[in-house]
Specification:
about 550 residues; binds calcium ion; about 25% strand; binds ligand C2E; eight-stranded mixed barrel
Length: about 550
């Protein structure tokens, strides 16, 4: 081979395009003198950390018109950076003189140059991909997924697809049973299996952990969903034996239609549906318009809460607690109202949202402070206050030093501690029990009365009454709101009242709306109630007016 041929060959190879595009031109410059019949190659990489999906590709770089002599070839191999290998085979052309030692040396130099070009090109590609790739599975990450969705969206094809968001179920358990590495392996294989199913234009993205997203053609959605919900069998080796682990998923889905606002919605939409699925214990939820509207309402609440609180848009309303025998007001429950643009927003709209985003404790502390300020004002005006109850969400109890903050707030306004009652609801599990016990004990040590709200609706009301230090229980309205009050309710409430009295705990019933309920409650020994029959929750000034010497007469 002459020097100028070699220079020409290298010139072609200095091109940055894909190797299969440039190699034929480069090889053609030297194929004649070196009697090359064919050049083929392959790259094989086992799936592993550096190449989660592995690689298995073959190439045809050159084919001479006279064909190749299948029995005469030179093979070159090179390790790749991702622990695989690349192989190149150069065949002698049909007929012609056999290769000399010098020819073979030249062919090796040429072959090496092609392999180098190939590896440089793969590295480049890898680098570009990695910014858009999840390292564990090699699937597109959120950026890569959005890029694909954006492409389809721009082409005006997005309504042909449905969007999915799913979590693999039980990965925590699998990581514990096997190992973190096996867990990663399960996720990787699961990703590979599903990736193997997708078609042109579709995309599966891995957001990290066990969170995935997918864009799937509408006609194939059902199959895709079936495989997720039905479970995918993943072969793994555990203690030297191969077993199958069936992995299922919790899935949120969104039908994409003309109202699709933009690529980001292909993640946020189905992700909200998956969240709802998780919260309601379902495996699969389709996003509806109502859910979307609720979502944007919730987001609005979350985003405007702090400003609204600072601007005094939240106000305490007071619902009187009444002694049914005398008609006297014996206390009040503080219930938050959000006065937004002149409208009164009721708690069920915003409390759950604030609980979810963790801001509820700020509202509850604010309500406590406002109630203390109101009470201070009444006392300064020479009036006798009644004890008021403040609702504290269970989420609040996780806040460090909550009890101290409550005490501080009450002391700052120089309020008698017996006039503030902290209302909490029963707990749902062991972990909450520990936190609740700690909190109620601190309240009790600080001489602040507490009340157990919605009593009787929890799992373990009786043991709650036995084990937790509390001053009052508030019987849930579900016990008295039957059309006809039943004998069973009477027995239950009667016994709760007797038991509480013997334990030195006050009893009140909430949700009293009818006179018959009053008679019923007095009959079973419960004297105190709260309910629409007496009053709805009232703005502070109206409540204050009620306090002035008012007694209810039915
Ligand atoms: P809750 O603590 O069980 O409060 C009683 C709810 O029942 C109040 O609803 C009250 O207006 C309503 N109610 C009172 N009497 C009657 C009646 O005779 N019949 C009927 N059907 N309902 C009656 P509201 O004010 O909408 O509050 C709903 C829930 O929101 C409360 O339930 C409480 O869990 C929560 N909440 C309200 N304000 C706050 C707050 O400041 N902090 C926290 N953490 N939660 C609050
Ligand atoms: Ca309450
Ligand atoms: Ca209640």
């Amino acid at each position: 081979m002459k020097m100028d041929q070699y220079v020409l060959f290298m010139k072609f190879l200095s091109d940055d395009s894909h190797t299969p595009e440039v190699a034929p031109k480069a090889i053609a410059t030297v194929a004649g003198p070196l009697r090359i019949g064919r050049v083929s190659g392959k790259v094989e990489v086992e799936p592993g950390a550096l190449s989660p999906m592995g690689e298995n590709k073959t190439y045809r770089f050159f084919e001479a018109s006279e064909g190749a002599d299948e029995d005469s070839s030179i093979v070159l191999t090179r390790a790749t950076v991702d622990n695989g290998f690349a192989m190149l085979e150069i065949f002698h052309a049909k007929g012609g003189e056999a290769w000399s030692e010098e020819d073979e040396h030249a062919l090796r130099v040429i072959g090496d140059a092609i392999l180098l070009h190939l590896s440089r090109h793969r590295l480049n590609e890898r680098l570009q991909r990695s910014a858009y790739t999840q390292y564990l599975t090699g699937l597109p990450n959120s950026g890569g997924f959005l890029q694909q969705v954006g492409k389809v969206f721009k082409q005006g094809q997005i309504t042909r697809y449905d969007a999915f968001y799913y979590n693999l179920k039980g990965m925590g358990f699998l990581n514990m049973r096997y190992s973190q590495r096996d867990g990663d392996d399960i996720i990787r294989r699961h990703a590979q299996l599903l990736h193997g199913m997708i078609r042109e234009g579709e995309c599966i993205g891995h957001l990290g952990g066990d969170n995935f997203v997918a864009l799937i053609l509408k006609e194939r959605s059902e199959d895709f969903l079936d495989s997720l919900l039905g479970g995918v069998d993943i072969p793994i080796t555990f203690r030297g034996e191969s077993t199958l682990v069936t992995v299922t998923a919790t899935v949120g889905m969104m039908h994409i239609d003309e109202s699709f606002p933009g690529p980001w919605a292909a993640i946020s939409g189905p992700s909200s549906a998956a969240q709802i699925a998780k919260e309601t214990g379902q495996s699969f939820v389709i996003l509806t318009r109502e859910m979307m509207e609720k979502n944007s309402r919730d987001t609005l609440i979350e985003n405007t809460f702090h400003t609204a609180l600072a601007q005094g848009q939240f106000q305490p309303y007071y619902q009187p607690k009444v002694n049914m025998k005398t008609g006297e007001i014996v206390g009040a429950e503080v219930l938050a109202r959000w006065i937004r643009d002149g409208h009164v927003v009721a708690p069920p709209e915003f409390i759950p949202v604030l609980e979810k985003c963790g801001a509820i404790v700020e509202l509850d502390m604010y309500m406590l402070e406002q109630a203390c300020i109101d009470m201070r004002e009444w006392m300064d005006a020479g009036e006798e206050p009644v004890p008021v109850s403040i609702n504290f969400s269970r989420r609040d109890l996780e806040m460090p030093h909550l009890a101290e903050h409550i005490l501080e707030c009450i002391e700052r306004q120089r309020i008698d501690k017996k006039n503030i009652i902290i209302e909490v609801t029963e707990t749902a599990d062991e972990r909450e029990n520990t936190v609740m016990m700690q909190f109620l004990s601190e309240m009790s040590e600080g001489n602040i009365p507490t009340s157990i709200d919605d009593f009787g609706t929890g799992f373990s009301s009786l043991s709650f009454l036995r084990d937790f230090p509390t001053s009052e229980i508030k019987i849930d309205r579900s016990f008295i709101n039957h059309e006809v009050l039943r004998e069973k309710d009477k027995v239950i409430i009667g016994n709760i009242v007797t038991m509480a009295r013997q334990l030195g705990v006050d009893v009140i019933t909430e949700g009293v709306e009818k006179k018959e309920q009053v008679a019923f409650l007095l009959d079973v020994g419960c004297e105190r109630a709260q309910g629409y029959l007496y009053d709805k929750p009232l703005p502070r000034d109206e409540f204050k007016a009620r306090l002035l010497g008012h007694a209810y007469r039915l």
